[in-house]
Design goal:
The protein is built from ten helices and five strands. It is mainly alpha-helical and 230 residues long. A hairpin with a 5-residue loop joins β4 and β5.
Amino acid sequence: MRHVAPGRLSQRCGYNRVVVGQYSFVMSGVVTGEDGIARCPWGASTPEYQAYHDEEWGRPVGDDNRVFEKLCLEGFQSGLSWLTILRKRDGFRRAFASFDPVVVAGFGDADVDRLLADAGIVRHRGKILATITNAQATVRLRDRHSSLAALLWRHEPGPSAPPGGTTELRASTPESKALSAELRRHGFRFVGPTTAYAAMQSLGVVNDHLQDCHFRSIAQTERAHFSVPM
């Protein structure tokens, strides 16, 4: 997602523009909003971002369909604002059968035409076709008694110090590069290292909430009680 954090917030940060995964913004440290809660800077800019930051981002996910959805949406976001994807997410879910890989894997030419005419989603032929291809790859993993979620979580990195500011975060990591390569070996598309890392961040495979973000400890507690899919 790309945005500049708004001004009506108390700030503990610098003002250099940074890029984190697929996200770009100006502030580097947490910001404290009118509710008195400290958040990562991008999570304090719009109501949609705040809800996503507070309730979803960094929380561990092991459900295969939800992992498939997030990987596809991160692919659709490439080159666009994540806010666009959030605002169209319900439309995506309707258009892609709630991201059920078994259903999407069976989409044919008529479905592609339907999706290209659907203003409720991002109408990009390559990304639509990649979503169908990725559904088929997900089904193949299941046929081999594995899962997309298990593949994702095999690339969880070891413990590291919490980031103090967004300037300490990276667009990709060795683990996301390895995940991207493995996904591609299994036939997935639109899954470059940056897209893979954005998915790892949002699905809780890493906890990239800043050290002073109120929601870092919440995500970390959930991670501690999370059963990694096998």
